[in-house]
Amino acid sequence: MADDTWFTPLTPLAFLDRSARVFPDRTAIAYGDRRISYADFAAEATRLAHALRASGVKPGDRVAYLLPNIPEMLVAHFGVPLAEAVLVAVNTRLAGPEVRHICQHSGAKLLVVDAGLHPTIAPVAAELGIAIVTVTDPASGAAADPAVGGMSYEELLARGADTPLPWAVRDERDTISINYTSGTTGQPKGVMYHHRGAYLNSLAEIVHSQHTPESRYLWTLPMFHCNGWCTTWAVTAIGGTHVCLRSIDANEIWRLLDEEGITHLNGAPTVLVTIANAQPAHQLDREIIVTTAGAPPSPTVIGQLTELGARLVHVYGLTETYGPYTVCEVQDGWLKLDPQARNKMLARQGVGMVVTDGVRVVAPDLTDVPRDGATMGEVVMRGNNVMSGYFADPAATERAFAGGWFHSGDLGVWHPDGYIELRDRAKDIIVSGGENISTIEVEATIDSHPAVLEVAVVGVPHEKWGERPKAFVVLRSGATATAEEIAAHVRARIARFKVPDTIDFVAELPKTSTGKIQKFQLREREWKDRESRIQG
Amino acid sequence: MADDTWFTPLTPLAFLDRSARVFPDRTAIAYGDRRISYADFAAEATRLAHALRASGVKPGDRVAYLLPNIPEMLVAHFGVPLAEAVLVAVNTRLAGPEVRHICQHSGAKLLVVDAGLHPTIAPVAAELGIAIVTVTDPASGAAADPAVGGMSYEELLARGADTPLPWAVRDERDTISINYTSGTTGQPKGVMYHHRGAYLNSLAEIVHSQHTPESRYLWTLPMFHCNGWCTTWAVTAIGGTHVCLRSIDANEIWRLLDEEGITHLNGAPTVLVTIANAQPAHQLDREIIVTTAGAPPSPTVIGQLTELGARLVHVYGLTETYGPYTVCEVQDGWLKLDPQARNKMLARQGVGMVVTDGVRVVAPDLTDVPRDGATMGEVVMRGNNVMSGYFADPAATERAFAGGWFHSGDLGVWHPDGYIELRDRAKDIIVSGGENISTIEVEATIDSHPAVLEVAVVGVPHEKWGERPKAFVVLRSGATATAEEIAAHVRARIARFKVPDTIDFVAELPKTSTGKIQKFQLREREWKDRESRIQG
């Protein structure tokens, strides 16, 4: 390639190398009473890389991880690529057969699993046909299931060594990780990230979430989700402190906010709802930066968190875009708006982050839709922060990249100021009597009712209109409201045809591990009857 | 090349494209009463690019600029590469023959010059043989000299057009600018920057100087100096406001600090001395970030600025490293140190910035010197933020890159914590009786005397010892001190053999346009007599 005096391939490995040299004694990872310095972080990654090699992992091989947000998962984000291998961080909520599919599809040589997740893999362990390594986390209280077999993480590391390895990559477009999309339906696809994209997206996370070496980042976002939106690498790059969190527990989150001096956290809006409505919620004595994505945050939760002392950074992206791709940049004039109008601006998905090529909303022929805030189109992206493809799936890759743009499958509008706003997943939109109804719009309207904690709207079959919206509502603890009161609230705010015919009150909504509401479960239940009716 | 859906060449052009789309109405450039929005900034750059093409500038051609820190210079940083040309920003303090040399060596097709600098180029204008374009800045009061000829900037722009051009580059390793080193001796060499390095260094400036979209950056650093340490591109990337400054005037700087709400500025320590000791200097009502480099800042000026409300970010680099390459990262423990000890830590050049490969201090055989804070060696660097070479000078390029590392020519030590500290330019070190004396160390010691404003130490010939240190001291206004008092102050602090034999009091020190003290002028004066004596 080029003269390497003035060209070095970009890789997140360089971030840990630097922080271990610059901040060797600073706490890189805090987990309960454990404190891991940057020097130890790098040493553990080095030992892991050697151990993987000694276990037969060759350059380009995949290594699967099924761990919650514990230190070993952070170490994997550097140790696996340091062995020139590819990290496959698997969703911890998946069922055994799904984990088996991912291990087999990715051709992983090794699976590192938390003892607490043995119940998931025990039924399929024998069929995996790969080495299993078990991490036993004293904090979990879970013991390894002998039926799973394999070796302990300590036994794996014992195969390692401390000889330094180069924190470098030969080609920056080599794959660093494969993230299987936690698709709500269908077989998951393996999204490939390259070192260059991971490096650039990490810098963008630092820039837009305003991380500094003083950052104390709370891991409320799963690391298996887009490698924690590349924050596994970003917080390491800046020399901040990762504060690990095994599971989403509102009391524990508030304890850490107070006792660990948290400055930043990321999470889906449902996680933010949990935090804002927890019993120990209280005004913070400092501003923290909360970066949120995964679904449009409702103006209500934006308002709640602002009152507690958080500054919200609203981003949007997909597994295919290394996590966040857009950011809702705050314009000077917005601070002068009344809170409701401002929150409405902040709830939009925004504009491309600094390292992106920018985002478009397009008609099926890939021409721009008018920037009128009304015409719906598909959100498409391109550039260094778009996946290099689906692993071993050229057909799906070709479909996703049709016309030279990555197709998000998300529907949205383009506002006159260039900001995009999601209106729905293509499959979530409700078509009622030929009119499109955005479930997101209906949800935000219902959510603005003071008694409502959470809501999901789906289309249900209707003899005359084809589909009609139906709402599933979780009320705030202690609050009361009738379906008619909520319907009246909605009628006063949006077009009549968008008002749900039925409003069901439920105790909770089905969610993915990242906190996304699984509308397909609600929808399936409604349509199952319908289909049987048609067939019957 | 690669599939461009997931690979886009890195270029700072993308930064203005994005900010013009995201912040079209925000003030990009403030200069006196002029306010240029981001939309207009991009429009002007587009018009300039078309105008350059219409004037015969072809891809890869060089375009020379000789302007102070005015808006047209910022526009050039985007308009010239948008025309696929290479910007050659020339030091405004150079003499006519030097400007002529740079224009001829770079083969520039066009020279854009400020009317206020006509006295510089008038004597050589006829010999240049290239098109001259004159910018007349009403704020300067300078009128164009008819002898220079050529056309006005307005006439140039009239050749332009508003048709959008792609804010992109075919190969990220194409050259974006050539910066001629303002070498204190010898013919200047043309340092080539590529789009990739400029892009990455811009992101590093944002990260380490903690720029945000609210940044209001005061242009105390010349834009012709390493393209303003890439801050021309960085502040544009983040969507901050550039506050232009035609010349270093302490009263005007303080007026802008107050009236423009400046949040950031960069400058050599001598510029900081000017600011800190100006008549209107006063405590700021907010923290501003002052990024400094060019010479090690003395603990005294660090202390002064901290008291005024500035947070110092100390960086170090060379024209060959896109400006800053290292940063003195602040360690947790330093805040607990007493101010003097802390300032001493902060005066070190530090560690590689986040986008670099890291810095080394080496012996002549390129092996690391011991990290003992005492053994001197040469500072060497490599990676994406090292120039791609000297323009049309393969021999000098080869010398600079001997052994695969860029040789800075700076001598320093490596501390046990991995921080480097400069001790001298190779040519500034004093060898006295076989002992090396760091002029920087002697200068810092003299500078800690309360009566001293500025000091330079050079080696002067000595019959017995070969060389001995001699100090040139500028006293603070109203302060008094005798040479013996200062010598006693130094004797109490460093080894006797390092104490200057002679201390001269002078009204001012010779400086380069970027505020670096020109020791060679002091040295030449001393050695001229000596040489004539030897020869005589």
Topology of this structure?
The structure is a homodimer of 536-residue chains.
Chain A: H1 13-22, E1 27-31, E2 34-37, H2 38-54, E3 62-66, H3 71-82, E4 86-89, H4 96-106, E5 110-114, H5 118-121, H6 125-128, E6 131-135, E7 151-152, H7 153-158, E8 175-180, E9 190-194, H8 195-208, E10 216-218, H9 226-229, H10 231-238, E11 241-243, H11 250-259, E12 264-267, H12 269-276, E13 288-292, H13 299-308, E14 310-318, E15 323-327, H14 339-346, E16 351-352, E17 360-362, E18 377-381, E19 389-390, H15 394-400, E20 406-414, E21 420-425, E22 430-432, E23 435-437, H16 439-447, E24 452-462, E25 466-475, H17 483-491, E26 502-505, H18 519-535
Parallel strand pairs in A: 1-11, 3-4, 3-5, 5-6, 6-7, 10-11, 10-12, 12-13, 13-14, 25-26
Antiparallel strand pairs in A: 1-2, 8-9, 9-19, 14-15, 15-16, 17-18, 18-20, 20-21, 22-23, 24-25
Domain AMP-dependent synthetase/ligase (chains A, B): 16-391
Pfam family, one (chains A, B): AMP-binding
Protein name (chains A, B): AMP-binding protein
Would you kindly provide a written description of the structure presented here, covering whatever features stand out?
- Chain A contains 18 helices and 26 strands.
- The first copy, chain A, is of the alpha/beta class and about 525 residues long.
- Chain A has a domain at about 430-535: GMP Synthetase, Chain A, domain 3 (2-Layer Sandwich).
- Chain A has a 9-stranded mixed beta sheet with strand order 2-1-11-10-12-13-14-15-16, with helices on both faces.
- In chain A, α13 (about 300-310) links the parallel β13 (about 290) and β14.
- The radius of gyration of chain A is 23 Å and the shape is globular.
- Chains A and B meet through α1, α8 and β16 of A and α1, α8 and β16 of B.
